[in-house]
Structure formats: C-alpha cells, structure tokens
Amino acid sequence: MEVFTHSIHFSMQKNEIVARFLEAGLLVHPAVVTYISESSGSGTIEGIISSLPSAVSVVTPKVVQGMAVSWFDKLAIGVSLMPEILSGKKGSSVPTANPEESFALFRDRYDALAAMMRPRVNPVPIEALVRQSNQFSGTDIGAIGMVVESLASAKGHRIVEIEDPTGTIKVLFNKNREEFDEVEKILPDEVIGVRGKLAGGIGGGGGMIFSEVLFRPEIPLTHTISPSKEPGKTALISDVHVGSDTFLLAAWSRFASWLEETPEIKYLLIAGDVVDGIGVYPNQDKELHIKTIYEQYDAVGEMLSALPSHLQIVLSPGNHDAVRAAEPQPVLPEEFCTKFPSNVTFVENPAIVSLQSVNVLMYHGRSIDDMIKFLPGTSYDHPGEIMEEMLKRRHLGPIYGQRTPLLSTPTDHLVIRNVPDILLTGHVHVSAVITYRGVLGVNAGTWQSQTSFQKQMNITPTPAEVVVVDMQTMEYEKFCFLGKKET
Ligand code: D5M
Ligand code: FE
Ligand code: ZN
Questions:
Q1: The model's pTM
Q2: Which of 156, 272, 273, 406 has its CA 20 to 30 A from that of 340?
C-alpha cells in the first residue's frame, strides 16, 4: 500500500490566489485559499468570482459551498456536503430539573425499548401477573421489564428479576434450554422480554415466570443497508490522545499526508479522547508531553488545520476530553477550540450524523469497560463483540452505577432509537470491524502506543489504524500508518 509517499503539486501559489481575489475587490478566507491551491488553481478562482452573489465581500468556505455553481461539476471537484447532525447537537443534553424526576431516564428507556419488542412479546403488565397469579397460572404469558438483578440459582439456572412501570417479578431461565448463553449475558438495567408459563404462588407469593423464550429489542431482520447515492469515503478514528508522551506523531503525519493524496475521503470522524487531558488518572502529568489542556487542544487545532480543507471533520468528546464525564457528554466548549479550522463540526457524545444520507452513530464507548466485565467470554481484544451486544439491546451502555457515569436526563440519549448505517466507537484502543444485520460496526483504535497502565491491565492496543468506509458501497478498508520502528 502506497501510503507513505507524498507528492505536492500546487497549481498556484497561495499569495497569487489572495492577490487575484483582492484585484476583484474580495477578501478570501485561508481555507478557501488552501482549497483552491490544492485543486485546479486559476480555473477554480474565476469560477468562484463569477458565481459570487453581489453582496459578498469576504469569500468564506460557507459562501463557496452554498453557491449553486456549476463550475464544481465542470471541474469535477468533489464537494463534501456538510454533515447533518441528526442528534447530539450542541446543547441537546440538559439534565433533569429536579431530583424527583431522576427516574425519567429509566422510564424513557423502558418505554422506548419495550415498544420495539411489544408486537413480538405481547406483554401483560407485571402488576396483573402478580395480582391475578391464580388466573394466569399455567398459561402462556409475556412480560417486558428492566433487569433489576440476575442471579444463578443453586442448581445453576438463572433467576432474573424484572421491573415494568407496574411492578416486579422473577423469571426463571432453565440452564438446559438452548438459548442459555444469551441468558447468561443478561445485563443489569437492560430491557428484556420473556414468554413462558406463569407459576402462581412461587417466588414470594405473586408467582414466577418459567421463561421459554428471551427477547431483546434487536435490529429487525428486515433491516437493509442504505448506501449513499453519491461517491465519497469516510475515515473513522478515535482516541488520538494528543499531549500524551505516547502519542504517535510520526504515524499521524503519515496519515495526514495520505489524506492529501486521497481526495475521495470527504469526511473524518473522531469519536472522542482527542487529547490525553490533564488529571484524568493519578500521576498523569508524568506521562504528558504537553502539560496544559489549552495547549493540548491548540496542538489538535493545528493538526486538523494541516489536513486537507475539503475534509469535513466531525468531533465528539470522550472521557479524556475537557467536558463532564457523565454521558451524554456535551460538545467541546469553544474556549478550547480557538485554533480549530472551520471545517470541524462539534457534536455531543453520543451523536448521530448523516453524511450524504449515511447515518453514523458516534459513541466514545466508555460502557465497553462495564460490558466486558459483565458479559462472559468477552475481552478487550474483541470490542466488535461488544458493539454487537449494544446493537441487540438497542442501547449503548445499559449498566447504571459502574464505571460509566450516566447523567439524569428526561430522555435516555443512549437508546439506539433508529438503526444506524454505521456504529462508530473507540475507547478500548483496539480496532475492530463487524457487521451485524446490515449495520457496520467500527471500533476505531488509537494514536497512542501502549501506556504503562494498559501494560498493567494486559491491554494490547492497535495504534494508527484507520478504517475507511466507501459510502456508496458500504465496503470498508483498513489502513495502518505505523512505521516499522514503532511496531
Ligand atoms: O481508555 C483506554 C483503555 O484503558 C480502555 O481499554 C479502558 C482502559 N482503562 C482506562 N482506565 C481504566 C481503569 N481505571 N480501569 C480499567 N481499565 C481502564 P482511555 O479512556 O483512553 O483511558
Ligand atoms: Fe482513549
Ligand atoms: Zn476513553
């Protein structure tokens, strides 16, 4: 793969470009100058000048992109459409106003996920099962509830207590049933459906459900992929950790050069931990190359400014970024982004962005730590399996009260309400790609070599790997920018 060669072929010097605009009585934004210098020079300038609305005196990237001009087509230059933020816009995650409303989050989670299962489960309210247990006893019934706890019985079966807005009930899953491996993956606070027989008077008087089938919200089998009609590729990354002394600058530079030579890449998505931050873990200062948070973000701003200006960059935060840890995390405050170029769109964590009609759900992935802890047979080496579990549960991080702090909000922002085309996560620093029922899941890896902490934890990262998705075909390729000495 020819990723390390770099040829520069400016057709026009930047000062010549500025001079030509001045001659026409126009000021020009540096990003537009870069764009023209990287494309076909004088032809592009004359096209822009002749198509400008008369009121314009400063030629900004917005003005250029907003013009209904045909010279883009004539010159066959790909214009990156602005990413459309479908959820996770700045200011959308507001905490609940008072503590009494703190259960709204779980009520909303229950309602949203129960609605996805209701036609399959045909549930009876739990209160009715408990109160009229004699009437329902021995009959085939359904129930949907949020998991309160899941315990192994003395004989190795599983007893799961579930709760709906009307009450709680215990469900017994027999270990000899086929789907028992799925039962062992039942997580605290996920919403499940069951169908089985009610046994009245067992399990504390109100009855117990002897489950025969377990349901999850799931991705419908009828889901089909919906690629873009336009050509265009998206590069997916996360966990850049700028400021850390293990940040791989040389690998990043190769990636930056390669992006310049690869104009079909129109979008770069960064799913959090763009900086290493300060005070994130004990004695972090000893492992920092850039010691202040402002300087770390300034360095990121400069790195992103050096990338091709036609790229549309979307950035969401992670647990090392300078925003609250509780999820959903807000967009990065402007005070940190003064050096960032204008082609960066800031979104919350999580967020959904539409790129040429391909919907990407971006989530940093802190909950992966909790899910690995609770899901038997999973490990940090295979984060793709966790992404699949998220999709099945239609939830990015169900477990409350572990390592992923969840903000109390009126609606649950971690519910996967609409099936995305791509799910992008990061956090564990191990890259992985899966497809699950037509959804492409990408865990993006990192730009940091193994830290002393990861060494202790026996986590082997996969640094400097980039997954590129062709949005017209939804096919992906993986590129590695590590040099020989860095492996
Ligand atoms: O997370 C980088 C990786 O390190 C990710 O796999 C989680 C793991 N990690 C981070 N902090 C901890 C603690 N405190 N315990 C266990 N595992 C951890 P990052 O978000 O980049 O620090
Ligand atoms: Fe990270
Ligand atoms: Zn992280």
A1: 0.85
A2: 406
